[in-house]
Design a protein that fits this description.
With about 575 residues, the protein is of the alpha+beta class. About 50% of the residues lie in helices and about 15% in strands. The chain contains 24 helices and 13 strands.
Length: about 575
Amino acid sequence: MKKIIPLVFVCGMTLQTGLAQTLPKWAGKARKAVFSVITYGKDNKILNTGNGFYIDENGTAVSDYSLFKGADHAVVVTADGKELPVTYILGANDMFDVVKFQTATDKKCTALTPAAQPGVNGQTVYLLPYSTQNKADGQKGTITQTDSIENNSFYYTLEMTTTDKTVSCPIMNEAGEVLGLIQKNMDETSESSYAIGINYAKSLSIGALSVNDPTLHAIGIRKGLPEDESQALVFLYMASSQLSSDEYLELLNEFIRKYPGNSEGYSRRANLYISMDDEAHRKLADEDLKKMLDTSENKAEGHYGIAKQIYNYVLSLNGEEPYGNWTLDRALAEVNEALGIDNQGLYSQLQGDIYFALQKYPEAFASYDAVNRSPLASATSFYSAAKAKELMGGGDGKKEAIALMDSVVARFNTPYGSDAAPYLYERARMKSEDGQYREAVKDYNAFYEAMMGQVTAEFYLIREQSEMQCRMYQQAINDINKAVEMDADNAGYWIEKGSVHLRVNQLEEAVKALQKATGLDTQNGSAYRMMGYAQIKLGNQKEGMANLEKALQLGDTVAADLIKKYKK
């Protein structure tokens, strides 16, 4: 054992200065449940030292929260001189300054038995110190006040003088049962001291949302899982976005050890292994996926889980070779297995997504159509069907896709919000490509309203192009002006502005816009050609012809016909 005993001048050493009293016979065995605690910072330097004691044979223990606050890791030193690491925190409360935690164990621990009945006023109590000696000396006192607190527990005022060295030492009754643990006394000369009831310390726990608890967050030691399995699952979900990969893997391993029959643990660990992006971890992920299927009570759900993991993995590859048989075809086979067991809309949606990724659009449409005929039908499923129908092509493909987009938009209430905006934009695009320009403009307007006017310069450009097609010239001019206002360094927007002004015979405005465009992009032949044409129409033959010649030099073949036409 490392030579750390000189650091452990805790309650037992202090009590030998004149306050020590011989304790009842039970103290000889009970003292083995009391230990010293040493906490460390990230720099591995000692942060605090103090006391604690075991409350069950499996290594569950309690101490004061102040001792652990800011700690990166901690150890306990038992009465036998054995050093054991603190493995995880099981609950904490900063107001009552108490923490519950787990230590590593190589055998059953000697633990103190919580009192069956709370202490009462006038009752004799004993302070049991940490001691490495076979004989346990301590202090004797009396309960002077008992106050009820939360969690069906009590807070005791004692006629007993205690010091910082006695904080978190246990207070025992005549029968050798623990009533509570000593708390820090602000006045060490006072003849009164205080103890928090053992039932309160025992009741501390980790809940589903404890990952966001600032009291627990202030302790760097990893946290245990909630005792309730469903809460433990929520805790895993919450922790996944807040812990490092290594910390989350430790938590998943703990979940699997604690709940080996829960398939979710294997599924989540497989997902983490896949994200580590190397063959060794992918092999581990493959093993976990098999365990996930084996432990799934619902085999359809198990096959679906495998299909989803593999599908997401393949989408992340960016052209790289997949691991083993982790392909879209494998994912499709798994989801087909799920559908063969239980024909659920959720499974059909994934089947459609896999077919879509395989560019099998008729099959994808059939899957999405099955979803749309189920209770799972949603804006997403109708949109998926619309995209598949659009990519299938065919004579009426675009119109059928638009009809499906009508079903998408019908899923939202008016006035539309930002959740409907992407679908309005997509329907507008489809209508514009189908030549339904006025209807497209209506959808673009609805998109603008849904976004509360928070749109990009590109949006104004796209709406302007539909407006030009249905001769909504003033609206088009307003939109292209807004686009160049928002992105004045974009040559393409200035070229489009010049083109709009040419279309409505606003030649001077066209020339100004195109001069701006050629200043930003000196190699754009179409800008020189349109500017040259406008200048000629304005009677500026010399400059106009020079710009047409420049356009021709830059490869604009249309300029050649204009040169022939206007050359004198």
